[in-house]
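Hi all, long-time lurker, first post. I run a small reading group and we've been trying to get comfortable going from sequence to structure in the token notation. Rather than ask abstract questions, I figured I'd post a concrete chain and ask someone more experienced to write out its structure so we can walk through it together at our next meeting. Sequence below, copied exactly:
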Amino acid sequence: MKLPMEQIANLESEILKRVRACPGISRITLARDLQIAPSTVGNYVARLCTEGFLTEIKNAPSETGRPPTALRLNPDGGQFIGVDFEARNIMAMAVDFSDTPLRHVHKTIEEADTVSQILKKIEQAITAVLPENPSRLLAIGVGVPGLVDADNGVALRYKHIKKWENVALAAPLAEKFGVPVFLENCVRSMALAEMWFGHGRGQENFLCIGIRTGIGAGIVAGGQLQRGAAHHAGEIGRWRYPWPESPLIRFFGDPSLPWPADVELEDVASVRAIIGALERARRAKEKTILTVKSGPITFPDVVRAAQQRDPLTVQIIEVSADMLGRAVSQLIFALNPAQVILAGPLTLLGGTLLYPLRERVALLLGASDSDMPAIVNSTMGEYNGALGAAALAVHEWKPAR
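-- Answer (accepted) --
Happy to help. Here is the structure in token form:
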């Protein structure tokens, strides 16, 4: 009986996913795992090989004398592009069919950029990493900051980009580049990158905390990325807390505004919050090596000051770490992860942020006699979200039928 084209595409997609997860898998094992006849698997594998998506390598003969074959992805089967962006940066990366990174590019978003200008920069970033032969591009994944309607390809809203509301992303990009486009929240893209390539590989339950202009959590439970009923899971940056007990807290927020009883997490613990606090402290003539800095403080300045153990910089970072520790503790209580992975620029601060964060989590969990999971910095670098978005495209794409 001939299967409908959609079922054929689904089956071939599942075969490719199994080979991607288990390089060297045999046709017999594939048939057993998929619970279909070996002859049926053989027909689809043969077609995928003919189309250049798979390669077969004959192993040494078995006891029966028949050499088994090992299936692997063909790196030349096509390319995927991942785009990751937030309030100030756009990262794009191209990978081959076996997930090997090929090209990447970084573009800057200016505060005055309009929504249309940002969309143009996203298109330019994709164009910069296109394969020489554009027909080799198979799909694009986009990690979107804030709330996203992934099913309809729309970015719903993000408070750190002006007028960023109900922005259609998937359809215009698909029309321009002629391939399917898949959207995901950018922090969940980071979690996907960790799940497939980083600290989360082989982990069934872990959290990825993405800290940039805003803050979000990518939640992996039971080996599956959790998106929530409306794809809004993990929006922890808007959680509110009482102000930390520190004299330096006066440098967080705008002193001209009424002092609220509590504060959002990302207004104390994000990259934006740390830079802002240090800038206000410098203007208030607080003692710091950043006093000699001409022009606005940048995050590389913060990293250098932390590496030199500038007391003010270290203390400001510790305030942020304390606040992050509160949020991480609540997530641990609720979700019981085996591991918490911190991702984003703040990982460049190393132990200056990580150690006090761990101490706060240990204190809060210890008070309730709860086990503490491993808390680590991601080692995937600034393009981890782009790699995760590319991996999203890899896993959502299906061979055309």
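A couple of things your group might point at:
The mean pLDDT is 91.
The CA atoms of residues 287 and 346 lie 23 Å apart.
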